[in-house]
Design a protein that fits this description.
The structure is a homodimer of 375-residue chains. The first copy, chain A, has 375 residues and is an alpha/beta fold. The first copy, chain A, has 13 helices and 15 strands. The first copy, chain A, has a five-stranded mixed sheet with strand order 5-4-3-6-10, with helices on both faces. In chain A, helix 9 (272-289) crosses helix 10 and helix 12 (338-353) packs across helix 13. The longest helix of chain A has 19 residues, at 300-318.
Amino acid sequence: MGLNRSTIGALVSELAGLGAVHEHRPEADPSRPATAGRPSLRVVPAADRVQVLAADIAVDRIVVALIGLGGTVVTRRRRRRTIGPASSGPAQVLAVLGEMFDAVLADRDPGVEVVGIGVAVPGVVRSRDGLVRFAPNLGWVDVPLGEMLRDRFGHLPSRVGNDADLGLLAEHRRGAARGIDDVVFLAGDVGVGGGMVLGGRPLIGAGGYAGELGHMMIRPDGRRCRCGAHGCWETEIGLPAVLRALGLPEDTGSEGLSEALARVEPGSTVLDDVGRHLGLGMASIVNLVNPRLFIVGGLLREVYPLIEDVARSALAEAALVAPGEQVRIDVPLLGGDASLVGASELAWSDLLADPTAVLGAGTAPGRGTVPRRRA
Amino acid sequence: MGLNRSTIGALVSELAGLGAVHEHRPEADPSRPATAGRPSLRVVPAADRVQVLAADIAVDRIVVALIGLGGTVVTRRRRRRTIGPASSGPAQVLAVLGEMFDAVLADRDPGVEVVGIGVAVPGVVRSRDGLVRFAPNLGWVDVPLGEMLRDRFGHLPSRVGNDADLGLLAEHRRGAARGIDDVVFLAGDVGVGGGMVLGGRPLIGAGGYAGELGHMMIRPDGRRCRCGAHGCWETEIGLPAVLRALGLPEDTGSEGLSEALARVEPGSTVLDDVGRHLGLGMASIVNLVNPRLFIVGGLLREVYPLIEDVARSALAEAALVAPGEQVRIDVPLLGGDASLVGASELAWSDLLADPTAVLGAGTAPGRGTVPRRRA
């Protein structure tokens, strides 16, 4: 970084004073020769001391967690929601979120400082201010969630992102897509979203709306989608389609889904249609963007083992040979936590950009040795 | 560039000696005050002196041209091809290409130096060596076109690219997409290809195969595509589908198409189905990548004015509101020359990377003032 030893020393002391890092003496390494002089201290992030609040607002559940640096989930709470407008209004959701955040905060270890909030939403989000432009499966249009979070939790910086984009972010940093430059992440829940990393960079689009995989048309004569169009991929592989195929009511929710999937007989064909449409849609995307890895995430990851063969054969049938040969299919390494961990990554961004402003805001001023900047 | 005046002088003299640039005294500008000292010479590329050979191999025609710096088409030849394996074999195509290149070269002005070859092909191309992996509408699989060009025209550096990628490159540098960061280029001919610029960079994919827009599935119960799958977008909006809708035989070719389009009555609905499928497919892509501009290129650009209304209403119906609001639809500013001009851009790349090696190869050595490097 081109900084001299004493500047680094001053900066590290300040961060240590704020509790962001620990300094400790490295253990002697018998495989290396002893070096002359005083050994440098090792500086590691204080993952136990600084944490963020993360939430994943899904259609049928809200999950809230305290997460440490590195993506470690420290405490978590989960609440089932009945699907429907009565419980999906932004005010109701924010009230529930507030209670859950309070409960998680009350559980935290003494001495832990919470430095930010990140929220994942199943909808199109304007990242600048957290405006939810459109979340069809919550029934939200232009909901200023970022502003509402700032009103309610003003002392903490908060950020809102699309659940699939955040799932992809987490898988790309810490999961199945680490080090891979061309990745498609499918977030299959009640709604089906997605995100892509192409050429090593997240695909954003002209206005930040890229990656709505669930609204690729797959069947012109198909069912009407909640977005208003007909035959969107979501209508064939979303949770309601899976539940219909299993003979269950569409409001069954994720626990009911898991139980029903466990009861599916080996060799059963009830889910073949879902598998076939999964594979056909993947083929279209493979032909369009030629990814190295396709991650089947969201609740669909639980269905995937039962439909893998059908999906793979539909994919092989419909994809061009060259890009078809190059794609690997996987489920998220972070499982159902991908969007939640992604929300925490978003929550860390302010701290990482300016540790002293964020940590300083919650602690006594003037402890550092370098003049403090405020954001 | 951090070079001093005398180094720049030496480099410019060398380029001028090779005929790549002209130096001339700028005219006095009466709106600006006269400055002290000798005015700097103005250096401009010698567009008239150095040219490249470009070819666009389409399914039913081959177009060959001499093109100057800046994309100016100097001479052009066009040959109609009957569609079918008898005339599509790589050896036959290369023989025709050779004759056409010879004819164009014979026409060139005295003193013109030709410095490279660029060829656009309607197929999946490995850019490194010009291997055509798959060109279903030519019936080619793993044809080493780059190698064949080097055998036949060994004295000139040659490059092969996908026609749609090259059309997009030309439109992005010199056409409708100048300065736009998120662009989809649809190349609708007998086959339907495409290319995308996303976040300001061409989309490549894991192996260079991205952008096969024509093989996005749009109708699971649709016709069998030449790629082997069913219901690819190409089967609904490719030239054969347009010709069928017009009641013409599928081997009509592009002149016949233009004549037939001119005879379509205003208000006729014969092309509505093509227009509807165009709009539905665009909607899927708009939802996936959120482009600012969608260019309808290839022969489809001639059909587009007749189907614009139907296509736009299908797009509006099937695209999500936010990305749907942001996309503009246009036809290529370079018209039918987009892929040809793109092929010339490819042909310039060696010259631009190392002018002395390329220009030196065809002229007397030792003329420059700076030691010559060879590629």
